[in-house]
């Protein structure tokens, strides 16, 4: 990564929907990290006090006027990172499932120039995370389909714990999937010549509240994303990403 002798500017993008009981702890942990990490919470149309709690912990907050979904919220973060000249973005869920202490595992390959995008994987190393049944089915299918398409084994396509370099930020600020975007983003990035890497991380169960996606919705999104991936095969040709400065 060419940043000369300057310290790379790092932005944590935290999409959050009605996470007032979790987001404060996530922001506090990010701000306590030994590295200088700016924290941006994208409040995705919450109806509770998510934005106020995040601000009280020192985060910068963008409150969307209505719910855009996880894709719109994360892309808002990429656009912010692009506009403000950040070198690295780290995506961290607002529900507390991602262990902030493991951010360095994601950052190091990006800082060293070894990878453009690093995915925190629940399925490398000792596996302790247990997802609901339908999600496990989706994870297996995405691992098979995506790995065949981009010709690289990616075990945890649904992980939202990721780090991106400047080139990937510019690419995703311009084009990012809307619904349940993580598996589709793997295909877009892989087909566009970005170097992907997975590193083993722990994944916590959320402390409070419930996921917004139940088993039926998980099946619906799985089918929808698979169709979107097929469409992307015609929209994206290999190596397109090299055009991004």
Description:
This protein is 40% helix and 15% strand. By secondary structure, it is an alpha/beta fold. The protein has a 7-stranded mixed sheet with strand order 3-2-1-4-6-5-7, with helices on both faces. Helix 3 (70-83) crosses helix 6 (166-174), helix 5 runs parallel beside helix 7 and helix 7 packs parallel to helix 8. It is globular and about 45 Å long. The model is unreliable at 241-245 (pLDDT under 50).
Features:
single chain, 245 residues, alpha/beta, seven-stranded mixed sheet, 7 strands, globular, disordered C terminus
Approximately how much helix is present in the residues?
A: 25-40%
Q: What share of the residues does DSSP label as strand, in percent? A: 5-15%
Tell me the distance between the termini. 13 Å
**How would the global form be characterised?**
globular
How many β strands by DSSP?
Answer: 7
